[in-house]
Write a structure and sequence with these properties.
Layout lengths: L7 H15 L14 H4 E5 L4 E4 L4 E6 L5 E5 L2 E12 L8 E8 L7 E7 L8 E7 L8 E4 L9 E7 L3 E6 L2 E7 L15 E8 L19 E15 L24 H13 L1 E4 L21
Antiparallel strand pairs: 1-4, 2-3, 3-14, 4-13, 5-10, 5-14, 6-7, 6-13, 7-8, 8-9, 9-15, 10-11, 11-12
Length: about 300
């Protein structure tokens, strides 16, 4: 029990601790927290293709001509902030895809995707993002990264709340998908998602539309991970509402839109590194999709 005569500085300290423990209003961590893989995640398939290092705080996914592999979160989450530090397949990675994504569990699923499309040695990776709502995607955006993602770990994150979905690369927003339900656009809001990652062969489409095939003489292909960070509202798969909705840090006003500096950084990415944006593809979409009018992409 807190004592009424306790010094004010100690009161402030204890209240801050209570807020952190309760997971309510507060600020997000500046960097992903490196926790053991087994705390939040578990292998999904081909367990022998996952290698563990540094007490389980770092893992590698291996892809060979027989199989790839992947992992998923133990829990399902309805909104939150999800981040992974990744180091992608080096050198000749053509035909391979390394994915980090959130997905719900039914046929009309919602999904939030990072997909890293491999390339020939010396050619840049392509980062493709996508958002599925009600089982429908076709909202691809593709960018080049402004660094070599195979040399060091970089952080890839998703902020998901009732107002927006933001994709971050090292704290730089590369995409924002606004909730435009008032304009008739669907938005993921009532289907809890698990977090997944995988390394797999997709040489029928991943590199130059499938023209570049996977060179299996370079196998095994290896992607490395650490910082298995989750800060979300954990829910049952059937849940359509978060019990702490409106009380968590990601629900607060400062996270309902990008700030001016973040908008500036997003436009920098759009101007310098974007190579495809469905919002400006008038062949596929003669009429601009409604959500594009609010996401800073046009």
């Amino acid at each position: 029990m807190l004592h009424r005569n306790m010094p004010s500085t100690l009161w402030i300290l204890l209240l801050g601790i209570l807020f952190m423990v309760s997971g309510t209003i507060g600020t997000p961590p500046k960097r992903p927290v490196a926790v053991p893989f087994g705390r939040n995640y578990m292998p999904t398939w081909a367990f022998d293709h996952i290698k563990y290092y540094n007490g389980g705080s770092e893992i590698q996914l291996h892809l060979d001509k027989y199989t790839g592999t992947g992992f998923q979160s133990k829990g399902s989450y309805l909104f939150g902030h999800f981040s992974m530090q990744m180091k992608l397949v080096p050198e000749d990675s053509a035909g391979t895809v390394t994915a980090f994504y959130l997905s719900s569990q039914n046929s009309e699923h919602d999904e939030i995707d990072f997909e890293f499309l491999g390339n020939r040695t010396g050619q840049p990776y392509i980062l493709q993002t996508n958002v599925f709502t009600g089982g429908k995607g076709d909202r691809e955006q593709r960018v080049y990264l402004w660094f070599d993602p195979t040399e060091e770990y970089h952080s890839y994150s998703v902020l998901w709340n009732m107002y927006q979905i933001v994709f971050f690369v090292d704290d730089v927003p590369i995409r924002v998908f606004k909730n435009c339900k008032d304009l008739g656009a669907r938005f993921p809001f009532n289907q809890p998602m698990k977090i997944y990652s995988s390394l797999w062969n997709a040489d029928d489409w991943a590199t130059r539309g499938g023209l570049e095939k996977t060179d299996w003489s370079k196998a095994p292909f290896i992607a490395a991970y650490k910082g298995f960070y989750i800060d979300g509202c954990e829910s049952s798969v059937e849940s359509k509402f978060c019990a702490t909705q409106g009380k968590r840090w990601w629900d607060q006003k400062e996270f309902q839109d990008l700030d001016s500096y973040q908008w500036k950084r997003l436009r920098w990415v759009r101007n310098k590194f974007t190579i495809y944006n469905y919002c400006t593809d008038r062949v596929r979409y003669p009429t601009m999709p409604p959500e594009c009018s609010r996401d800073g992409d046009v």
